[in-house]
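Sequence, please.
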């Protein structure tokens, strides 16, 4: 039996419609803010038609994003609310861990009792800058069991560890401003007379690297691990510091890589905070007016302006998506580079 041309076309159309119906449409997210281009070189890192997608909102102060490659999802902190949230393209946002930091009976001594910076840890875990427990901690992703790795320096409790990065040899570099404590530097809970930058060795030894910064905050390493970057969230000296690192993890040659102090103000919300580094050594660093994209030498190429203060950022998905925690919401930007 032969089929007419009309019947064949009708059947093909029906199959095409069924195939299209079986594929879920891509989720369209609202866009926010703008990408400010200060140098044509930015086009090689972020396409001219790139947009800032708002993925989730309703947070008090979102922070510390980390992409979990094994599970295909993002974790990030809401520090004042003492929670870690989970986001994925399939499931959206949900609470992953609560409390994420302090779990005791009286949190009145804390300004921000939750977790802050998060990074990937050994298989099946994350490493955490734990404001509420005033510690560097490891969390098992399956059980959510927490192990405190460091809580003191020379017998005195840390202020409230804020951000961290792990080197190839397993050492953890972290910052310790007093942001987690109520009344911060004037808190009666504060035991150390400074806000330090530290190195936690794989054997548990803690070494103080820097004690002269007022509010050390974000921390990152260059791709060759020979430079340590530290942001300073001080409105009077809003800078990014760069330090040379030797093989033993000791710092020297501290210098200002970029000074944002002149930009600080109501028209450009935010201060130097968290940062990410791409495979070529470009810095994506939060600061006044959004996430600034800098060359390894500190030259500005542009910025990702979300319209609100940006706290931190991290690469995820296929390595070319930059996730940004920006106050009340989470956003992402597709890039042409890789974290």
């Amino acid at each position: 039996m032969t089929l007419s041309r009309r019947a064949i076309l009708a059947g093909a159309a029906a199959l095409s419609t069924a195939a299209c119906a079986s594929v879920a449409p891509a989720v369209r997210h609202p866009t926010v803010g703008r990408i400010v281009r200060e140098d044509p070189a930015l086009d090689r890192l972020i396409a001219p038609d790139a947009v800032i997608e708002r993925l989730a909102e309703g947070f008090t102060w979102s922070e510390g994003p980390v992409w979990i490659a094994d599970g295909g999802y993002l974790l990030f902190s809401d520090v004042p609310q003492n929670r870690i949230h989970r986001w994925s393209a399939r499931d959206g946002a949900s609470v992953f861990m609560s409390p994420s930091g302090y779990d005791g009976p009286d949190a009145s001594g804390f300004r921000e009792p939750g977790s802050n910076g998060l990074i990937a840890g050994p298989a099946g875990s994350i490493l955490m800058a734990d404001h509420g427990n005033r510690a560097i901690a490891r969390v098992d992703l399956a059980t959510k069991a927490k192990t405190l790795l460091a809580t003191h320096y020379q017998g005195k409790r840390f202020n409230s560890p804020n951000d961290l990065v792990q080197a190839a040899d397993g050492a953890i570099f972290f910052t310790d401003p007093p942001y987690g404590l109520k009344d911060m530097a004037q808190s009666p809970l504060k035991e150390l007379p400074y806000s330090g930058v530290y190195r936690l060795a794989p054997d548990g030894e803690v070494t103080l690297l820097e004690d002269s910064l007022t509010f050390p905050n974000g921390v990152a390493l260059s791709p060759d691990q020979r430079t340590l970057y530290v942001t300073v969230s001080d409105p009077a000296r809003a800078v990014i510091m760069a330090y040379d690192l030797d093989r033993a993890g000791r710092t020297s040659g501290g210098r200002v890589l970029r000074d944002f102090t002149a930009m600080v103000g109501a028209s450009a919300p935010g201060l130097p905070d968290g940062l990410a580094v791409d495979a070529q050594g470009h810095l994506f660093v939060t600061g006044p007016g959004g996430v600034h994209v800098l060359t390894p030498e500190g030259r500005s190429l542009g910025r990702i302006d979300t319209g609100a203060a940006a706290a931190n950022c991290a690469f995820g998905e296929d390595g070319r998506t930059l996730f940004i925690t920006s106050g009340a919401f989470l956003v992402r930007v597709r890039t042409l580079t890789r974290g």
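The domain at 29-334 is CATH 2.120.10.30 (Neuraminidase).
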